[in-house]
Amino acid sequence: MAPKLRDRRSRVALRDFILLSRWDNVSAMTEQDDLRYPIGRFAPPASSLSGVRAAYKQTLRQLPANLRAAVAGLNETQLNTPYREGGWTVRQVVHHIADSHVQAYIRTKTALAEDWPSVKVYDEAVWANLPDSRLPIDGSLALIEALHGRWVALLEAMTDDDFRKGYNHPERGRQNLANVLAMYAWHSRHHTAHITGLRARMGW
Ligand code: NI
User: Fold this and answer.
1) Could you give the count of Cα atoms lying within 13 Å of 193 in the half-sphere of its Cβ?
2) For the chain, what is the mean pLDDT?
3) Which of 9, 65, 80, 161: CA 20 to 30 A from 47?
4) If we measure between CA atoms, which residue out of 80, 76, 74, 87 comes closest to residue 35?
């Protein structure tokens, strides 16, 4: 009995230790995580039914207007303010959305045109510091508006079979287009919330 009991005790102790360390981790990360992930991290959709996809398409359709509203009236100093300590400025966030969604559009079209192509990753941190990330945001707002017009039109014309097509991402693995749609709907809301969250905290 004794060894068994000891085993059981050490199992319980181990379980408590794991729970406690998880708890510590969670509480230690909460504040930064809240600022970095204002709507939470991306969770793949449980279903890719057309009703679910319609909601994601609506988010992509609304991003250009929502983003314009999020940055409306900000001055140069405010645009150059990081949304969190060590994070991107509002200006960089806007340019990043344009960079990222151009990539997503090209990847979507590549997945429709080819059989599970491999796509190339880009270093978003490096891109966010290239000289064009210091330009006025108007160019990226216009780019996002035009891009989302075409992207949503394409998504609207896609069939169930099309949403089962996809690409191989070197880091994330096989991504079907239903998942890609959900991810970029999340990405749209995620970065818009960085800006609206900063404005709320700063009282802008
Ligand atoms: Ni992003």
Assistant:
1) 14
2) 88
3) 65
4) 87
Residues near 165 by Cβ (< 8 Å), separated by ≥ 6?
Answer: 111, 112, 116, 176, 177
- Which strand (E) or helix (H) includes residue 128? none
Q: How far is the CA of 9 from the centre of ligand 1 (A)?
A: 45
The rounded Å distance from CA 139 to ligand 1 centre is 18
Phi-psi region of 107 (alpha: psi -120 to 50; beta: other; left: phi over 0): alpha
What does the block give as tokens for 179?
């998942």
Cα 68 to middle of ligand 1, angstroms: 17
pLDDT classification of 66: cutoffs 50, 70, 90: very high
pLDDT, tens digit (0-9, with 9 covering 90-100), for 111-148:
999 999 999 999 999 999 999 999 999 999 999 999 99
In angstroms, the CA 143 to CA 101 distance is 10
CA of 109 to the centre of ligand 1 (A): 20
Tell me which H or E stretch contains 109.
helix 90-113
